[in-house]
Write a structure and sequence with these properties.
The protein has 167 residues and is an alpha+beta fold. It has one domain: 2-Layer Sandwich (Nucleotidyltransferase, domain 5). It has helices at residues 54-59, 85-93, 105-112, 121-130, 134-137, 144-162; strands at residues 2-3, 15-16, 24-32, 38-45, 74-77, 96-99. The strands form 2 sheets. Strands 1, 2, 3 and 4 form a 4-stranded antiparallel beta sheet that branches. The longest helix is centred in the C-terminal third of the chain and has 19 residues, at 144-162. The two termini are 30 Å apart.
């Protein structure tokens, strides 16, 4: 769910990036459907744990969802970084059925199946599409509202292109 763009100018909702020599950065938590179309988005400092952004990401869903039923449950696949009881409870409160592998379980599955592919690639592909926009790859805006607006614009363009309306 999360990606860490660089942030050379600082600003609110930034933090030291643990993977980039402590430089300031932002974390994007993205919720997508099975096809990779964006549904929800939250931003925070790069030093924020992914599990802390689950609530904000789920609250950011802009459209009314249909009620899940036993015939049509609404599933949510997350990576092992979200393997916490609080995350499972939050996901259940929002009416989703959580599918979170236990830590170490993915390695065992890869050993058993030669062509095992994690479901995470759908979210990673959407982050890759977002990184094609220069104003998002490197965050130049200091205000989190401006950065969030740029992210929403980029996601709207991605959805527009995926719908096949651009020609």
């Amino acid at each position: 769910m999360g990606a860490r763009p660089r942030l050379p100018l600082g600003g609110k909702k930034t933090g030291k990036n643990p993977t980039d020599r402590g430089k300031r950065g932002a974390k994007r938590s993205l919720l997508v459907d099975a096809e990779g179309m964006p549904i929800g988005l939250a931003i925070e400092g790069a030093n924020r744990n992914d599990m802390k952004l689950v609530d904000a990401t789920l609250e950011s869903i802009p459209v009314e969802r249909p009620e899940p039923t036993s015939d049509q449950p609404q599933n949510m696949c997350m990576d092992k970084g979200y393997d916490y009881d609080e995350v499972r409870e939050t996901v259940a409160e929002f009416g989703f059925t959580a599918h979170i592998p236990k830590r170490g379980e993915e390695k065992q599955a890869i050993k058993r199946k030669a062509r095992y592919k994690a479901r995470r690639y759908v979210v990673e592909r959407t982050h890759s599409w977002m990184n094609r926009f220069r104003g998002i790859l490197i965050r130049w805006s200091k205000k989190p509202e401006n950065y969030l607006a740029m992210l929403h614009l980029a996601l709207a363009i991605i959805a527009y292109r995926a719908a096949g309306l651009s020609g």
